[in-house]
Specification:
single chain, Immunoglobulin-like, 5-stranded mixed β-sheet, about 30% strand
């Protein structure tokens, strides 16, 4: 007896749009962050309707069933949506359960005015490279990968004496490379970076001729801090300031000596990195690095 193959008739075709997808990027490793994050989205006008992103096969964090956007997600074509569609505001919150990256929050407006993945909109010169993804920076609890240097310390506001939280730190090497980190609520920071290239590589011709071993190698680095807490924007329902406002803070003064000394403050601090050792940056005579927003009293 021959098997009877049932006939099927297409009754309905369902089409769904993904209105928010994000590629997270690790600038220290110059690689995508494909797992380990908890990414949530909450309507500003209804904080009880938080949804969590799912991870696609390619490591993109995406959202479905976004509150208030069902019509746009299921619209068959653009003509059925209307032009332009109304926008809604949401709080995007990112946390890393394993503690590799600093948690951040940002208000986003949906639907996006462009197709494709979310691009964080920061000022020109901001460290975030939107062409690669949404950059997250190393936390103080992250273990540096092999052959990576760690520039770390504790920031203190020279005016208030309180921890300088949510500052953006930049470490620049002589070859022009820049590496970034954020200070946490206690002012602690950690900037991870690969060791700068040696001028002549091992095994090359001619070989290194200065007689120094690898563990005797040093490099000059330049540290700068962007810190202007008065310019930070709050995020509704969050204890974190807006990520974009953190990245766009103004330049701060760094005090190599205690504030009030004849040396004063500088917008950059040049110091030396030693191979194989964390570089703990501090103001002379204390364990913290004193900074202040430019224009504030000290």
């Amino acid at each position: 007896m021959l098997d009877v193959v049932p006939e099927y008739r297409l009754m309905e075709r369902v089409k769904r749009r993904t209105l928010l997808g994000i590629r997270f990027w690790d600038p220290a490793l110059d690689a995508q962050i494909a797992d380990g994050l908890r990414v949530t989205l909450t309507p500003v006008e209804n904080t009880r309707r938080t949804i969590t992103a799912y991870r696609t096969r390619s490591g993109i964090y995406a959202f479905d069933n976004i509150p208030g956007l069902h019509v746009l997600e299921t619209a068959w074509d653009d003509d059925s949506i209307g032009s332009p569609p109304p926008t809604h505001s949401y709080v995007l919150d990112i946390e890393d359960a394993s503690g590799r990256f600093s948690g951040v929050a940002q208000v986003v407006y949906l639907p996006l005015p462009y197709p494709g993945l979310f691009l964080i909109d920061s000022d020109p010169g901001s460290p975030n490279d939107s062409t690669k993804g949404f950059s997250l920076y190393s936390s103080i609890t992250r273990t540096p990968p092999a052959q990576y240097a760690c520039v770390c310390g504790d920031l203190v506001d020279a005016h208030s004496g309180m921890p300088a939280a949510d500052a953006l730190l930049r470490v620049r090497t002589d070859d022009g490379s820049s590496w970034y980190g954020l200070s946490d609520r206690e002012g602690r920071f950690s900037v991870l970076m690969p060791y700068p290239y040696l001028h002549v590589a091992y095994g090359s011709s001619p070989p290194l001729s200065d007689g120094l071993r690898l563990f005797q190698r040093t490099w000059n680095i330049t540290l700068s801090v962007q810190y202007s807490p008065a310019s930070l924007d709050p995020v509704p329902g969050s204890d974190k300031p807006s990520y974009i406002s953190i990245l766009n803070q103004g330049q701060a003064l760094i005090y190599p000596q205690l504030p009030g000394s004849p040396a004063g403050g500088f917008d950059e601090l040049i110091t030396q990195l030693n191979y194989g050792r964390d570089l703990v940056v501090s103001t002379d005579g204390v364990s913290e690095l004193h900074v202040s927003p430019i224009g504030s009293p000290t």
